[in-house]
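Known limitations

Files may contain more than one protein. Parsers should not assume a single record per file. Below, a two-record file is shown to illustrate correct handling: read the sequence, read the token line, then continue until end of file.
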Amino acid sequence: MPKLLTKTKVLGGKAAVISYERDPKSFYYRELIPGTKKYRTARIDTATTEQEAILCAIDIYAELRTENRRADSKRPTGPASPKTKKTNKTSIQHHTKEYLIEQEKRARAGLISNATVTQLEINIRLHLVPYLHYKSIDDITELNHGCFDEYPSWRQATVKGRWNEKTSVTKQTLTKELRTIKSWINSLHRKGLTPNIEVPRIKIRGEDRMSNPAIHPDDWETILKYIRSEWIPEANTQEREWAKWARYMFWNWILIAKNSGSRPEELMKLRWKDIEFEDVGRFSRSKQAENIQLYQQHNIPIDEDNLEDLGIVRKEIAHIVYYSSKTGEMRISSCNCVNVFERWRKFQQDWLRERNMASGLKPSDMIWACPYRDMESTLSYLRYKEMWSDITKRLQGRLRGHIFSNKPYTLYSLRATFVEESLLAGKDVFLVAKAAGHSVDMLMKHYERIDPRRRAKELTDFEYGKKKTTSKRSPLQ
């Protein structure tokens, strides 16, 4: 067996990222198959350093789980062979596995997204199963009222960051995990296997909603300057081809996210056919009449360079059609990002052509499709989060943050920035809510954290040198 060079535990010790002495530049994901002394291993093709391999571990974990679920769903369900060991039909392991197979079937039917199935599996395998093990519950017959009361405190006591640093779980995250547990309990209850067991409810107050704060304008400039001048060039100097593509893609992606108000997952799955450019510039007929005859007299061609002299001011905007997996609705948002889309399109086309990866882009192609995944999918949402975290951690101490929140900036902060800046610019709140895919109530509850000082002039302004006189009268006078 090849000799190990490095071994780093990931996913709370449930797996490891390893490399071998024979090939130190290649990294592998390895996890122990439960109940055996064998390992399940997968090569991490996109990683060139150990840190990149660690960041990709959760993707490999999710892919292996998806393959297992599909294999299980295709397995014959007839009577077991006499030589086959019987499965304990009331074990926790059996019913969690069965539940995930059911969710995979729902995803194939289009009822839920694949991302939802992956998140459900993460919540169950990394949180629910370890908690039940902590409670010494191995059989569903041992489930009872109150058995999940300790879950919030247990979760806070055991949570660790990616590099085992101590951190905390937000109330919103706890709520989502408890919702997964409740869904699993309900599936058992519908089958008549357990009573309708309640799970704890987390009360979320106003201060708990201060996560994902909008990005301060000065911080936004700092982030963009760092990405352009240091973060992207860093990948170029290290000659990491995959990292060059990923970082350039992410720079253009966050520009669109911040200016369109889209949810990250909505923006990730956009296709070129979902975008339309429109010229909404101005046209002056009088100015054109003055100059067009002069141009003809001197045989001056009319082209892009002299349109403004003819009273034509061009301004293109992008209309984006979003398909929300969260609400199931379709909406349109517009933004001033035509140049960003065109720059990214050119970069992607040149990248594919230079490496003979594809003949060109088609309307049905995903805008952010990864060329190292046969242009069939994007990087995972977790990878986007890791890139954003990498940038903000490097800028720690240089970002001032939001006045009303001590929480760090997240990918959803780009969406919050769009909402806050639109409201500060005096745009109609109904129009902003429509573009963001929210009701006005939800928008004001979760995203409106405007600093009144940025509109202080409107609050304190008055007219000098004028004394207003008013008179009142009754309608009957």
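...continuing to the second record:
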Amino acid sequence: MTRAGALPPLAVAMAFIAAIALMAAALTIADPLFAPLVPGGLRRGVLAAQPVLLPGFALAGLGLAVALASTLARGLPTWERAFLVAVFAAAQMNGLRFGPLDAFDVAVFGMLLVWIARRALDSDRAIELPPLVFAAALLVLLQVPNLVHQSPVRWAVGLFGMVRSLIVAFLVVNACSSRERLRFAESALLVLAVASGTIAMLQFVLAYLGIFAFTLIDPPESALKPTPIGLVMRASALCITAQHMSGFLVFATPVAAWRLSERWRLRDAAALAAILGGILVSWNYGAMLAAMGLLGAFLFLRWPSRAMHLAALAATLVVLVWYTGLWRLLWGLSFGDQGVAKGVDQRMTLFRLGLEKMWRDPLVGTGLQGFAEFSGNFWHRPVHNAIGQAATELGAAGALVLVGTLFLMLTQAALVAVESRGEARAVATRATLMTLALMLLMQSEPMLDHANTWLVLGFVQATVLVLGRDGARRGVPRRRYIPGDTGAG
């Protein structure tokens, strides 16, 4: 028996082994610096054991992580909370790979196995199969016929990514099955976004000052990007790309902004600053524009009674920026930069190739991840627009399914926000803002089978189900939206 909150003996043992392995590995790696200070016999022993020290350290670290995860899981009262923490954390740690899989794959399929085991013991528990799950399943089915013309390996990799998206959507919807779990999901999203943004800012500052450069972007050279302050290493925290990290932070922005608007505390201001700072140092201009658009929409949806004032202020700022020439300066510091222009030109070229593919055969796509082999695509990348990606890889049907899914999620979340009051209206409004952010990001990124896409869509679908079901249970009538009504009460 161990005290509540105490580490189990396995965790203590693994921590001790990991500490010894870490010291030995550090001594080996830093040999030129510490060699004069180490006795010759010890030094020779460490060097002789070098082939097994680093693998031993890796295994010990993995064992420690498993032990700590089991301890954390015991502290979480339900599978739902453990799942939300695991997938949100893994979504920001997908730069850590386990062979062909990354941390997100391991978390999703591991928690799926736990869910199946729980279902076997509790077969009376209801299972949610909302429209989002059927839409994801339809995208999976659209990939199946592409086996007749696509490389089997690439076809299997693409199918795996879409099946994973289906599983993520299904599990998120079933994990967020109550208002309390929706609140926990938002809190987990916010905490992990703040942590990721803080790591990203620290990572950028250390690299910019030449102290220590660390990135999980592969290859590391691709992390360098021309910016208004020179050629810098873009931050990605523990993600494999800056887009993974910055997109996750954009989705957490409405949660952080809403909490700040409710309490106006320094802690909440610091959380929002950490998220926006992380987006900035990622140097992902699509995420920057999405964050700015999201904050603009947030002001109108947070204070609808001030819509006329906000619109007048926005119009005044546009006029000032235009006639003072400030827009030229802003353009020169952003999209006027040669490196940014190169990225925009690449995206436009990929989109033109996508239009050519659709013109040749609008009904049949190249298969998921198959556009990399399309003639003229020297970058071997998908169209950097999610709808264009769906159209070129899954045909017109894939594009229609994706557009219909986004439209359905946006309109349903907005309708629930209009018809709800109090905290329910706030949650539905934040879900609406997340959907808008996703649609903005999709204009510049291939996010069809992206982890962040289906995490957000699953949360939005769960919000619609939970709040709609609660409203119907209470017999809340459909009401007409009245400008100036904040919904408080």
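Parsers that stop after the first record will miss the second one. For reference, the second record is described as follows. The first strand starts at residue 97 and ends at 98.
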